[in-house]
Amino acid sequence: xxxxDQEFRRIVTYVKSRYGIDLTQKRTLIVGRLENxxxxxxxxxxxxxxxxxxxxPQGKEAAExxxxxxxxxxxxxxxxxxxxxxKSHVLxxxxxxxxxxxxxxxxxxxxxxxxxPYTLEMILRDYFKLVxxxxxxxxxxxxxxxxxxxTAKRGRYHxxxxxxxxxxxxxxxxxxxxxxxxxxxxxxxSRVIFKQFNLMDPIPFRGKFNVVFLRNVMxxxxxxxxxxxxxxxxxxxETGGFLFLGTTEALDRSRINFRYVRPSVYQKV
Length: 269
Ligand SMILES: C[S@@+](CC[C@H](N)C(=O)[O-])C[C@H]1O[C@@H](n2cnc3c(N)ncnc32)[C@H](O)[C@@H]1O
Description:
Elements: H1 5-19, H2 27-40, H3 46-55, H4 60-69, H5 80-97, E1 103-108, H6 115-127, E2 136-143, H7 146-154, E3 156-158, H8 167-173, E4 174-176, E5 181-184, H9 186-189, E6 192-196, E7 209-214, H10 223-235, E8 237-245, E9 258-262, E10 265-268
Parallel strand pairs: 1-2, 1-7, 2-6, 7-8
Antiparallel strand pairs: 3-5, 4-5, 8-10, 9-10
Helix pairs in contact: 1-3, 3-4
The chain binds S-adenosylmethionine (SAM).
S-adenosylmethionine binds next to loops.
């Protein structure tokens, strides 16, 4: 099925305005990811499909479109330096900062198929194991794609995907379910709350966060979209809280209220 220039621009405009994702240079990606789906679904053209998507932006086809067009690459312990910093600096600091409430709230804001929030939850469990019961840590994991959230909630991974996980975590927090597959234990799963959320929407969550992981998602957004998102996230963080970006990402320090801590880590002061 051929895509016309006009149809391509229509998809780019729709995805940018609704999800912030800039696909201007991604014609091949759009065709590669949608063509088969449209053919199988007996849509006559990209226009016919977009009529349905735009006619009901909360509907099934709109969800399928964004499921198809997001890039969800992730893995356990990704950019492990940051997890080391979380363990060695951030959690000890928060333990002091939040000692009166014993309540720590973490948001993993583009959680994809679950590897990142489960990594976080394993680290939290490990860190707080000696004072379990005393501390109330909550971990919210969100993504715009309903497809990746399904995978995340299932919590099953091929054995090769566990390669980066320290063996002690593997032993404590996974169980083998077949020759090839491991599943995150129910205990870990039940502590991660997965929700669908589009980062372009007003943040609806009550309570402010002590830590936000916003890694490897702003690479798809333009500068203005990034600035606006960072401002909204700032407003939903506790003073003293930490923001983690992907290690290739940085904020323009002249335009933010966050304090720079180290590459890709910022603090609300
Ligand atoms: C490359 S993955 C990064 C996953 C993980 N944070 C990591 O660093 O490994 C980017 C994720 O951002 C999500 N995403 C893209 N645009 C989004 C939006 N507007 N709102 C929420 N999530 C979005 C995608 O669905 C995808 O799962």
